[in-house]
Automatic annotation (TrEMBL), chain A:
This is ABC transporter permease subunit. GO terms for biological process: transmembrane transport. Coiled coil: none annotated. GO terms for cellular component: plasma membrane. Belongs to the binding-protein-dependent transport system permease family. CysTW subfamily. The keyword Cell membrane applies. Keywords: Cell membrane, Membrane, Transmembrane, Transmembrane helix, Transport.
UniProtKB/TrEMBL annotation, chain B:
It is a multi-pass membrane protein. It is found in: Cell membrane. Its main location: membrane. One of its GO terms (biological process) is transmembrane transport. The chain crosses the membrane at residues 25-47, 100-122, 131-152, 182-201, 281-301. This is ABC transporter permease subunit. It holds the Pfam family BPD_transp_1. InterPro entries: MetI-like (IPR000515), MetI-like_sf (IPR035906). Residues 96-302 form the ABC transmembrane type-1 domain. Keywords: Cell membrane, Membrane, Transmembrane, Transmembrane helix, Transport. CDD domains: TM_PBP2.
C-alpha cells in the first residue's frame, strides 16, 4: 500500500514537473542579460524594455485585446442563451441538432474551422457585398463562434447542477419569465458566465490559426506576430512577453477561484 | 397557488410557460441562427468549393453554376478532380495516415502521463484538490503558442534538455530533438495534457473508494484491483479525454510547424500550405472535407459519450 502510494506520488509529480518546467525555464530566461538563450549573462530587465519599445508587438497586442474583449462579450451573451436553452427549455424540435452544433466547435480542428469561415466570408462578400474585405469584423465573428461553445458548456453544466426550486418558487409567486430570468436565474449563474467570459477572452487572445485565415492585411493579432517572429528564431523579448502574459493570467485565475469559492460558501453554508 | 411538485409530474419551467411561445422561440432562434450561419453553412460552402476548379482570378475558384445570359440558362459544372487527385497521390494519403498515427501515439502518452495526476487529485483532500486542480488548469489558460515556443528553446541542440543530459553523462553528444517527430509528440502531449486530466478527474472523483477497499479485502493485489475496478469505472473519462486530445491533434498545425522537421507530415500543415502557399482553394477544401469525414465518427462518439462522461 505504501509503495503504491509512493509510485503514484512520483508519477503524478512527474506530470506536474512536465507541465511547469518549460514555463519556469521561459520565465527565468526572460530576465537573462545575454541574447543567447542558453548562456546566462546575469539578471536584467532589458528584454522588458525592448518589448515595450517594439511598436509592432504593442500594436498587435492592442488589436488582440480589442478583438478578445468584443468576442468574449458577444460569445457570453450568445453562449448563455444557448446553455440556457439546452438545459432549461425542455424538448423542442431541433434540440439534438443544436446540441451538436454547440459542442462540435470544441473539438473541430482549427484549420477546418478557419478555412470554412474564410470561404464563407468570401462567398458572402460575392453575394451581398458584406463583409467587404477581411479585418476586425471577420475575426470577431469567427472568435465569437468558437468561444460561444465554451461559454455554453460552462453555463449549461452550472444550470444542470443547480436545483430548479428557486426558479419554481419565484414562478409560483407570480414572476414573469423575463423578470424570473433577470432576477433569479442570471444572478445564480453569474459566476459561470464570468468564468465563461474569461475563458473566451483568453481563447480569443490565444488563437493563431483561425485568425490567420480570416484576418485581413494590417490586422495582425498578437499570436500572428509572435508566430512569425518565433519561426525565424528564438527572440528574447518574446520570453518577456510570455512571462507578463502568464503572470496576468495567473493573477486572474487565482482571483476567479477566490471569488467562486467565496460565492459558493455564501450559497451553501 | 400552491403546487406540489413530485418527480413524476414535475414539468420543466418552460413547459409551464406554454403561453408565451413567441418569446420562447426568439430565445431559441438567436443562438441557433448564429450557429447555423457561422458554423453549419460554412461546411456547405467548403463542400461546394471542393467541387470546383482552381482558377487564377478573384475568388480563385470556378463557379459551380454558370449563367449564360444570351440563352438564359445555367449549366452546372461539378468536378471530382480534387478528390481523385487526393486519392491518386501518395503524398496526401501518407499525410492523412501519419497525422492519424502521430495523434494516436500522442493520445496514448497523454493518457499514461495524465492518469496518475488525475488519480492523485481525485484522492486528495478538499483543499489540496482545489490547489492541484488549479495547477492543472493554469497552463491551460496561458497561451498555447507561447507554451509550444517554450519547448523550442528547451529542445534545441544547446537547449536545457540536452545540457542536462550531457552534464548527467547520459549522452556524450547533443541529440537532435527539435525538428523531429519526437518533438512533435512532446509538444502535443504537453499542450493537450489538461484536456486529458480534467475528464479523467471528473470520472475518478465520482468513483466510490470503498469499492477498491472491498476488492483488497477480498484479496486483490493493488495492480489487479486497479485493472478490474478502477479502470472500468474510469472508462467514460478515458474515452472523453482520448477524444478531446485525438480529434484536434489530427488537424494540428502550430506544433508540427514549430517543433517538427521538414519531413514531419501532418494533414493540418498540408492544408495550410495548400491554401496559403499554393493558393489552391478547391484542393484545400477537398483536403478539409476528407479530414472531416475521417473525424465524423469520433466526433459523433464524443457527442453521445458526453452525457455520461461529463
Amino acid at each position: 500500500m505504501k509503495n503504491h502510494s509512493l509510485a503514484l506520488r512520483l508519477s503524478a509529480g512527474f506530470g506536474f514537473l512536465f507541465l511547469y518546467a518549460p514555463i519556469v525555464a521561459l520565465m527565468v530566461y526572460s530576465f537573462n542579460e545575454s541574447k543567447l538563450v542558453t548562456v546566462w549573462g546575469g539578471w536584467s530587465l532589458k528584454w522588458y524594455v525592448e518589448l515595450f519599445q517594439n511598436k509592432q508587438i504593442m500594436d498587435a497586442a492592442w488589436v488582440s485585446l480589442k478583438i478578445a474583449f468584443i468576442s468574449a462579450t458577444l460569445a457570453s451573451v450568445l453562449g448563455t442563451l444557448a446553455g440556457f436553452v439546452l438545459s432549461r427549455m425542455g424538448k423542442f424540435r431541433g434540440k439534438t441538432m443544436m446540441a451538436g452544433w454547440v459542442t462540435a466547435p470544441l473539438v473541430m480542428p482549427e484549420v477546418i474551422t478557419g478555412l470554412s469561415l474564410l470561404l464563407l466570408f468570401v462567398a458572402m462578400e460575392n453575394l451581398f457585398g458584406w463583409p467587404a474585405g477581411r479585418g476586425l469584423t471577420t475575426v470577431i465573428i469567427a472568435h465569437t463562434t468558437f468561444c460561444l461553445a465554451f461559454v455554453a458548456v460552462v453555463v449549461q453544466s452550472r444550470l444542470a447542477s443547480m436545483d430548479e426550486t428557486l426558479e419554481e418558487a419565484a414562478m409560483d409567486l407570480g414572476a414573469k419569465p423575463v423578470s424570473l430570468f433577470f432576477l433569479i436565474t442570471l444572478p445564480l449563474i453569474a459566476p459561470a458566465i464570468l468564468s465563461g467570459w474569461l475563458l473566451a477572452f483568453t481563447l480569443s487572445l490565444d488563437d493563431l490559426v483561425i485568425a490567420s485565415f480570416v484576418s485581413g492585411p494590417g490586422n495582425s493579432t498578437l499570436p500572428m506576430v509572435i508566430f512569425s517572429k518565433v519561426r525565424l528564431g528564438v527572440t528574447p523579448e518574446i520570453n518577456a512577453l510570455a512571462t507578463l502574459m502568464i503572470l496576468v493570467v495567473a493573477i486572474a485565475v487565482i482571483a476567479a477561484i477566490v471569488i467562486m469559492r467565496r460565492q459558493s460558501r455564501i450559497q451553501e453554508p | 397557488m400552491i403546487t406540489t411538485t413530485t418527480n413524476t409530474t414535475r414539468l420543466t419551467l418552460w413547459q409551464r410557460l406554454q403561453g408565451i411561445r413567441l418569446g420562447r422561440w426568439l430565445v431559441i432562434l438567436v443562438p441557433m441562427l448564429w450557429l447555423a450561419a457561422f458554423f453549419f453553412i460554412p461546411f456547405l460552402v467548403v463542400f461546394k468549393i471542393s467541387l470546383s476548379e482552381a482558377m487564377i482570378a478573384v475568388p480563385p475558384y470556378s463557379p459551380l453554376l454558370e449563367w449564360d445570359p444570351s440563352r438564359a440558362y445555367a449549366t452546372l459544372k461539378i468536378t471530382f478532380g480534387n478528390y481523385l487527385f487526393l486519392f491518386e497521390s501518395r503524398f496526401y494519403l501518407d499525410a492523412y495516415l501519419s497525422s492519424l498515427r502521430i495523434a494516436a501515439v500522442s493520445t496514448f502518452f497523454t493518457l499514461i502521463i495524465g492518469f496518475p495526476v488525475a488519480y492523485l487529485i481525485a484522492k486528495s483532500g478538499p483543499t489540496m484538490r482545489t490547489v492541484l486542480l488549479s495547477l492543472v488548469i493554469l497552463p491551460f489558460w496561458t497561451s498555447f503558442l507561447l507554451r509550444v515556443y517554450a519547448w523550442m528553446s528547451l529542445l534545441k541542440k544547446n537547449g536545457l534538455v540536452n545540457e542536462t543530459l550531457l552534464s548527467l553523462g547520459l549522452i556524450d553528444q547533443p541529440l537532435q530533438i527539435l525538428q523531429t517527430d519526437v518533438a512533435v509528440y512532446i509538444g502535443i502531449v504537453y499542450t493537450y495534457l489538461p484536456f486529458m486530466i480534467l475528464p479523467l478527474y471528473t470520472s475518478l472523483e465520482k468513483m466510490d473508494i470503498s469499492l477498491i477497499e472491498a476488492a483488497k479485502d477480498l484479496g486483490a493485489k493493488p495492480w489487479r484491483a486497479f485493472c478490474l475496478v478502477t479502470l472500468p469505472l474510469a472508462k467514460p473519462g478515458i474515452i472523453a479525454g482520448c477524444l478531446l486530445v485525438f480529434i484536434p491533434a489530427v488537424g494540428e498545425f502550430v506544433i508540427p510547424a514549430l517543433l517538427g522537421g521538414s519531413d514531419t507530415l501532418m494533414i493540418g500543415r498540408v492544408l495550410w500550405d495548400e491554401f496559403f502557399l499554393n493558393r489552391d482553394w478547391p484542393l484545400a477544401s477537398a483536403v478539409a472535407i476528407i479530414m472531416l469525414i475521417v473525424l465524423v465518427g469520433p466526433i459523433m462518439f464524443m457527442r453521445n459519450g458526453n452525457k455520461e462522461a461529463m
